[in-house]
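Sample pair:
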Amino acid sequence: MKYWRLINLDRYPIDAAGVSRDEAVIAARKELAKDGCAVLKGFLSEEGISAMVAEAETVAERAHRSFTRTNPYFTEDDPLLPKDHPKRQFFDRSNAFVPADNFTADGPLRTIYNAPGFDWFVRDCLQEENFHRYADPLADVIINAAEEGPGFPWHFDTNNFTVTIAIQNAEAGGAFEYAPNIRAGDENFDDVSNVLNGTSDKVKSINLEPGDLQLFRGRYSLHRVAPLKGKRPRYVAIVSYVEEPGMVATPERARQLYGRALPIHYERAGLRADALID
């Protein structure tokens, strides 16, 4: 599979230096500087979208599903805080991630990921100095397969940024909603509470379309995917980069998100590989 058939290189010439590439990078940087979110509309070609949908449908049954209740900070309940404190507001969350080892080297997702210039284009847009591919064999490229239900409730990310590609929308719902930089400089718990109870005027909403590439700084911007409706699943590809080379998840994190851990997860955690109990 050829990357130039999957990516809209006329609009986003990631593999060639020049004015058009510079313009795309500058536009993304402006959006990120404004509110921490850049959407590169139509990053994939029509053929790329079709190929990604077909691949997602082929592997969707291999998604690991988990169900939890979480607050926006992914922390435990603190009974010392008032009951209405945002750290004590918990919401249902469902995950369905297809692990990275289900995607072949010649499939569309990895073809896009390995396309000449893709890493550098993303890095240039984000202006990140410490920028490395995630070395985790279960998580470098994954697909989230979300079904009807609560979606992803309000939360802050623990990493500096996320890189996602919209593949297929649900029949209804699923808007990306965020309160830009609501946590920048201060925790601003009152503003966070207003978002959680639906009274905030700081929330923006984006309807991502299949083929859109999204770059988002979610550490300081509260965000969610609105509840989904209908039988058609929502597919989103997640491409992971980290600040240090060679990073992988802990065994506990791998098992939580992907249902299993590999020897590398235990070895990097300082555990013997034969401790694997999957």
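The domain at 3-247 is CATH 2.60.120.620 (Jelly Rolls).
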